[in-house]
């Protein structure tokens, strides 16, 4: 079983739609959680950290459920520019190395 | 540009050849990581440096791979006797721990194709 699992998608949504991505992780000792965004043939870029209390950054909301070992990302009012791959990331212990899921592809169409 | 830089951006080589990649981290970042990403997958951790010390290596890093960070600044990743399975994007990230929080910033990557 992979340490971080995500639905690969693709999610094809119209502009203005709300879309949610889910992610599960296997290491219950994981302490830090993130969502990264990766555009085609580019490097990953930090979108937001995920906190136990949930956090929001504009149109983006991230939630963490430690009991279920589950992380989510909600994007409201989707824009064409949101089209990318969204990577769920966990710090799995040992020198803060990032453990990535395989990513969920989002395509927002007009 | 004060971000993480990597060189070269692309490399095509024949099987059996050696290749070396360079990463220049953000100035004053003491932590440096190498990751590898294949098509359709997320990046996978390869190795980690704190200053010049290599503190962790993944089992993905076979004997053909070696990484150095001689002066605690730039780092190199060398692959000897390349194989077709080495074809991937090699990503470098650097970070600085501030107030207990660490954010890793990635370079643009080196895309390797082994023929």
Count of beta strands of chain A: 11
Number of helices of chain B: 0
Q: Gap between N and C termini of chain B, in Å?
A: 33 Å
Q: Which range does the strand content of chain A fall in?
A: over 45%
H and E string of chain A: EEEEEEEEEEE
Biggest interface: A-B, 21 and 26 residues
What's the helical proportion of residues of chain B? under 10%
Please, what is the oligomeric state? Answer: heterodimer
Can you give a write-up of this model?
The complex is a heterodimer of chains A (110) and B (115). Chain A is 0% helix and 55% strand. By secondary structure, chain A is mostly beta strands. In chain A, strand 6 (55-57) and strand 7 (60-65) form a beta hairpin. Chain A is globular. The mean pLDDT of chain A is 92. Chain B is an all-beta fold and 115 residues long. Chain B is built from no helices and eleven strands. Chain B has strands at 5-7, 10-13, 19-24, 31-37, 44-50, 53-57, 65-68, 75-79, 88-98, 101-106, 110-114. In chain B, strands 2, 4, 5, 6, 9, 10 and 11 form a seven-stranded mixed beta sheet that branches. Chain B has a four-stranded antiparallel beta sheet with strand order 1-3-8-7, with no helix packed on it. In chain B, a hairpin with a 2-residue loop joins strand 5 and strand 6. The termini of chain B are far apart. The relative contact order of chain B is 0.34. The model of chain B has no long low-confidence stretch (mean pLDDT 92). The interface between A and B is medium-sized, with 21 and 26 residues.
What brief labels describe this structure?
heterodimer; A: 110 residues; mainly beta; six-stranded mixed β-sheet; five-stranded antiparallel β-sheet; 0% helix; 55% strand; globular; B: 115 residues; seven-stranded mixed β-sheet; four-stranded antiparallel β-sheet
